[in-house]
Design goal:
Largest sheet: none
Shape: elongated
Helix content: over 70%
Number of strands: 0
Order of helices and strands: HHHHH
Number of domains: 1
Radius of gyration: 14 Å
Structural class: mainly alpha
Length: about 110
C-alpha cells in the first residue's frame, strides 16, 4: 500500500498494532500473515476500478463513504476483541476486508 494515499489509521496496519491484535485473539501464524497481506492484495485488485468509478461518479461520492467504512472497520475490530477466539478471528478478517475497501474508496477518490 505504499503507492496509495495514506490515512492516519493506516499506521495501525503497518506498524504492528494489527499483528499484536491478531496474536491476542489467538490467530495462527499462517492466518496472521494472510490477514496482514489482505490490504495490499485487495488494493491491487480494487484500486484501478474504484479510481475509474470515482472519476465517473464523483470523487466525494466515494471518498466520504470510504472514510466511514474505515471507521466502521475499526469499530468492528473493537467489537471482535470481545468475542471468543473463533468468532473473533472471523470478525477480524471481516473488519480487515472492510478497512481495505474503505481505504481503497478513499484513496481512489483522491480527497485532500
Amino acid at each position: 500500500m505504499d503507492g496509495l494515499r495514506r490515512l492516519p489509521s493506516d499506521a495501525d496496519f503497518s506498524n504492528g498494532v494489527l499483528l499484536l491484535f491478531l496474536t491476542s485473539i489467538q490467530m495462527d501464524r499462517v492466518g496472521t500473515l494472510v490477514c496482514l497481506s489482505l490490504p495490499a492484495l485487495f488494493a491491487t485488485f480494487f484500486q484501478a476500478p474504484l479510481a475509474h468509478w470515482a472519476d465517473r461518479r464523483g470523487k466525494k461520492k466515494l471518498g466520504y463513504p470510504g472514510i466511514s467504512l474505515v471507521a466502521l472497520a475499526f469499530l468492528g475490530l473493537l467489537v471482535a476483541a470481545g468475542f471468543s477466539a473463533p468468532l473473533a478471528r472471523s470478525a477480524a478478517v471481516g473488519a480487515i476486508l472492510l478497512f481495505t475497501l474503505g481505504y481503497c474508496l478513499y484513496s481512489a477518490a483522491g480527497l485532500r
